[in-house]
Amino acid sequence: MAKKYMYFFGAGTAEGNKEMKDLLGGKGANLAEMAGIGLPVPPGFTISTEVCTLFAKSGGKIPPAVEKEIMTNLRKLERASGQEFGDEANPLLVSVRSGAKFSMPGMMDTILNLGLNERTLEGLARKSGNRRFALDCYRRLIHMFSDVVMGVPKKKFEEILKSWKEKMGFQFDHEIPALVMEKIIADYKKLIKKETGQDFPQDVMIQLRQAISAVFESWNNPRAVTYRREYHIPDDLGTAVSVQMMVFGNVGENSATGVGFTRDPATGKKEIYGEYLFNAQGEDVVAGIRTPSPLRKLETEMPGVFKQLKETTTRLEKHYGDVQDFEFTIQEGKLYMLQTRNGKRTGPAAIKIAVDLVEEGLIRKEEALLKVEPQALDQLLHPIFDPEEKKKHILLAKGLAASPGAASGQMVFTANDAVAWKKEGKDVILVRDETSPDDIHGMSAAQGILTGTGGMTSHAAVVSRQMGKPAIVGCCDILLSEEKKTLTADGRTLREGDWISIDGATGEVLADRIKTRPSEILQVINGEKKAADSKMYQYFTKFLSWADKVRRLRVRANSDTPPDARVAYAFGAEGIGLARTEHMFFGKDRLPIIKEMILSEKEEDRRRILSRLLPFQRQDFYEFFKEMHGHPVTIRTIDPPLHEFLPKREDLMVELTELRAKKSKDKKKIEELEKLLERVRALSEFNPMLGHRGCRLGISYPEIIEMQTEAIFEAACQVAKEGNKVFPEIMVPLVGSAAELANQKVIIKRVAEEVLAKHKVKLAYTIGTMIEIPRAAITADEIAEEAEFFSFGTNDLTQTTYGISRDDGVKFINYYLLKGIWKDDPFSTIDIPGVGELMRMAVEKGRKTRPNLKVGICGVHGGEPRSVVFCHQLGLNYVSCSAYQIPIARLAAAQIVIQEKQGKKTDGD
Ligand code: ADP
Ligand code: MG
Ligand code: MG
Questions:
Q1: Which among 143, 174, 393, 459 is annotated as catalytic?
Q2: Which of 154, 452, 674, 769 could pair with 735 as two cysteines, CB 3.0-4.6 Å apart?
């Protein structure tokens, strides 16, 4: 049998179904599914994504076999619709719709009303008895087709339309009568001729073929390519094309088009939610041309249709086991469904919906866990405005609360400005009449987004929710001039660069910058709010408790201070994976001691001074142990080069020169400074990152390690004596050979045993090492002879594997990403083929020597979902990350277990 490239769907039957997203794209698969379960879907057929690849391979031509199948399906569609494509008396009109496996909102093209020409136009006019309607369709077709296929900028069509409306005194498109519509169409045609030298094609088959080709081509338009890069969507998936019979929301007052969600995508509230426009078509609702009405109004205007819509979408939600984001059209009182997909939602809504769906019995817990993007949890921890602070500022306007979160920033009016200002380190709010896919980069750079038009389903709203950015849309209280870069509201005019604040949870736009305070979840964790009073906290903990039951990876925290550790524990940390002791040295009372220690040349002096530091460290460690309630606490011995604790050489030189110039009498001060400068000079290194640091310091200054070990075990003994559990793990950094670790281990062990003996305390502890130098990974079998655990320091490991300093890399890594030389920044997500391979080697070799070797990770990657998945696959015991990433890691670690069980990765819509 010949290969099948097309899948037909029509009332009650469909060749495809919702599982076929690879072939049919999300839109095509769901159209088939809806038709298959008997929902009112206009008939059509979907050309598979495989044709997109064929099309590109054959140099942008539709292969003959495909062409033949299109004709067969078109005939079938004619029979199903009782109309004929290109027929003068009874013309069939179709839409040609793009749709990839993963939704890429607004990135690719769709053309409506294909099949109209001068002759079929008259047929449609006669058949419908509504010439104005037929002309409206024709004008829309010319506009869309010429933009997408013939490359005439759509702005130019909009200008013609606008000037006619102004001339005739109409405010809205649907007020334009047939006579004026004809004039507009005539102007459109002239424009095309002028711009392209060609006429708008009258042959309907040419229209269809060119439209299909254009949709395939739109897969590779720059916007779509950038979008895929941003969302990690592979380039070779291709788009499907659905050809579908048109239904018309623009016939008159008893027709409409609309979009909606089965639950509120901002809060998760269980309530049908959406917008519609009478006498309109397609994108009119989201384009912000007229302000649409809320679905609530449909209930009173067309109660029968509303009831049917509600029943249909409730059924869809049950059927899909998830919130649906749907499109519909009402043609003369009859409802048609045109699209459905799993709705994008904010982080807080995602959690609420996932938990509610389980409790309503619609899905199982494991399914619920897969419904929330780990990164989206971050949004629940975002700050909100301090209510008291908020009261002190002027409320400029109120718009639709499209995406929650509080943001303050300086106003910019273009996406490019947003990016440029952000680069200068400024926080910006992007203010636009409305956003389009061309604004994505600016939205991504902004702290928040404010638009003057558009509803809850406008581009700005949808994309902001997806990005987790605060946004207010459809704020008609403000007067915007994108040209003059001003915003007028409440009788005052603000300019580019002025500060404003937006509260995406309430829709309030306020003047100036406003102080924020912790999110509700953090308030509970900090004890400012009772858990019983916070629904959000209850949802959050319930959801994550499900994740904890499933995951195999443990999750620990990187914490440098005991208060940090307390927050981490509240977020679910099961221990500390990295406590950087040197961060404790920066305290006001400690830094002078450290300095003095570094300045003294004799070992005995250093020992004396270090003994003054000991009580501080002991107290810190004691508190760490207490905060972790018996879970393991990994303490790293000193790591950074010593000069980090001393003043900068240039500063000292300046100070000294000034003193001398002033002919200061303070001899002692000058002498001190000279000595300090000399020491700073001696310690300065060409490349400190590869210099005297880590265990290299511990080897040359064993007394530091002795003091640290003593402090750790003194603290541990104290905790144990108080009857509490304690489990210290001492970690030696920057080891490249087993011998280095052996040297440090002898010191640590000796001191540890001395302290334990002195206090007559028995407790378990381990000594291990970081794996952060390629040589350590390569000789992991030897290192494991000494090490009782490994922890991957993937920041240094990435630096040393790539030979790129993380601090200097920022200058060029962006170019690499822009040019597509790298898909990802290896400092944000683990470079699996390189750094990851070294990790794999280290795990294998290490466990060959020591089968029970405990292995973790403590680099920043430990809280990044894709890296967490990789760590799970490598068989690590735990990941360690910052407190705020702990919920993310807990969820990512659970999801991979569920996906492994299901044997596949789930996708979007
Ligand atoms: P997008 O992916 O940009 O949403 P769609 O293919 O969904 O593009 O189509 C754009 C708009 O046109 C949507 O509002 C959709 O409902 C509408 N539309 C598409 N096909 C038809 C059709 N056959 N009849 C009526 N409206 C349609
Ligand atoms: Mg759509
Ligand atoms: Mg390191």
A1: 459
A2: 769
